[in-house]
Amino acid sequence: MQSYHSSSYKEALAVAEETDKKLSAYDFKGNEWVILLHEEGTQFLFRYAFLKTWKDWVFVFTEHHKFHVYHKTDLSYYGYLKEQSVEKLLGTGQKDSCFDCKKEFLVDELIYKAHPAKHDTDFIVPLCQPCYDSADDYSAECDK
Fold it and tell me: Beta partners for 88?
């Protein structure tokens, strides 16, 4: 395993294992997803999961698949996606970001559907029209 700046993978793994031993099914929420974007482009979505950071490390604890340990420098993004009722937000002036281009739009301007390029999941994400139209072609840029 790799050794990193402030602490080793072995140390991080020990911290994650100790935390994992203390968890129960009640620690996981069904309406919250963890999303990780690896610096080389791979995307991970974990349902019934949560994040914890320690020093330069990111831990993802999952209900059924134990935990995963990543060094922060290996990830271009880590955070949460929350399922929410979009209908409640329409007309409120609430803003959200497009899942693909990360630009901010009014909720009313976004399309909330399963991502067209991610056929293995039915997770609902916000997409602006240009990104939705070009979702199967990741070379296309949002020009809005």
Answer: none
